[in-house]
Design goal:
Length: 331
């Protein structure tokens, strides 16, 4: 199956296009704590609609994070609608109203509702018209697929937004979810004017100093065990206070520990507020850290899981580390 053959049902695509073009005002929404796929997809659709003279606005519970401030017209993203008479809603990169946060009720009130998403659907997901494909690595891939089927010309701004979504959700085309279609679309977006170097720099290469200082604390104090196959780091609340970093800035830290070539399991304990510890777990191969996380009330995937403790970091370490040792001994 060539990537060109991956497509949505034509009737549905035509209905979507007709609905967009007959709408008075379109409400576009995406999830809480928006990432590059969420905002990239929402803004790409917004750019397309404005280019066609179709009134629209993008709603999100949270403002764009610092590393997505470069997205063209990111200032359009708001948390309260200013337009009136919305007669079409489009939800991107999520499949329930709860993940919309405080903007959810606006979407619940509009018919019809279109859903474009790549998360695993559950029963009673909303959406009068649904474009869902869990095989797709990013919602931006699905939107690019829709644009192709709708014969939409992709502007440089749209290309930058869509590429940001794909680069974010595939980890710059490195993760297992990277598909032939996503690479093909990526190539097309470059032809349409997206700058992949700029996107990657902005998304991954512009961190606040506070986060790097906190990373330094973790790297300096991490503990290695069992022939350096197990590593864990502890960030007490004082480390957050002293560096001025917040928990959002610890994104990717646990993977730094997992990148030690001998390491098979990595754990990061963060006391995000006094007496409250969040733990991220990563593993290579068959070591199932999700099973360990479930033992203590957490969950996740085999190689990426998490859990939390209402305790001191020391107590959390004492509870979890023996379980991780046992997990390493199991295979
Ligand atoms: Mn996504």
């Amino acid at each position: 199956l060539s990537p060109q053959d991956v497509h949505f049902e034509l009737n549905q695509v035509e209905e979507f296009k007709a609905r967009l073009h007959s709408a008075t005002a379109v409400l576009i929404g995406t999830h809480l704590n928006p990432d590059g796929d969420a905002l990239g997809s929402a803004l790409a659709l917004s750019h397309y609609l404005w280019s066609e003279g179709i009134k629209n606005e993008v709603l999100c519970h949270h403002a764009a994070p610092y590393n997505l401030q470069f997205l063209p017209e990111v200032g359009r993203v708001r948390s309260e609608p200013v337009l009136e008479g919305h007669d079409l809603a489009v939800m991107l990169d999520l499949n329930n109203f709860e993940r919309l946060g405080k903007v959810g009720p606006y979407f619940e009130a509009i018919k019809p509702l279109v859903l474009v998403d790549h998360h695993v659907p559950s029963e009673n997901d909303p959406g009068d018209i649904r474009f869902v494909d869990v095989q797709a690595p990013a919602t931006a891939v699905l939107l690019a697929r829709l644009f192709r089927q709708m014969d939409v010309a992709i502007s440089p701004a749209m290309a930058t937004c869509l590429l940001t979504g794909i680069v974010t959700d595939t980890g710059s085309f490195r993760f297992r979810n990277t598909s032939a279609e996503s690479l093909e679309i990526g190539a097309h977006l470059l032809e349409c004017g997206a700058d992949i170097n700029r996107v990657s720099e902005e998304v991954f290469g512009r961190k606040p100093l506070s986060g790097l200082r906190l990373l330094g604390v973790m790297l300096e104090t991490m503990q290695l065990e069992l022939d350096e196959r197990l590593v864990y780091g502890v960030l007490p609340h004082s480390a957050f206070r002293e560096t001025g970093a917040n928990d959002e800035e610890t994104e990717g830290f646990v993977n730094e520990m997992l990148s030690v070539r001998t390491v098979e399991i990595a754990a990061l304990f963060r006391e995000t507020k006094p007496g409250w510890v969040r733990v991220s777990l990563r593993s290579r191969g068959d070591y199932d850290v999700a099973a360990v996380a479930r033992e203590v009330g957490g969950g996740g995937h085999r190689n990426a899981a998490g859990c939390s403790f209402e305790s001191t970091p020391e107590e959390a370490v004492n509870d979890l580390i023996p379980r991780l040792r046992a997990c390493l001994a199991s295979s």
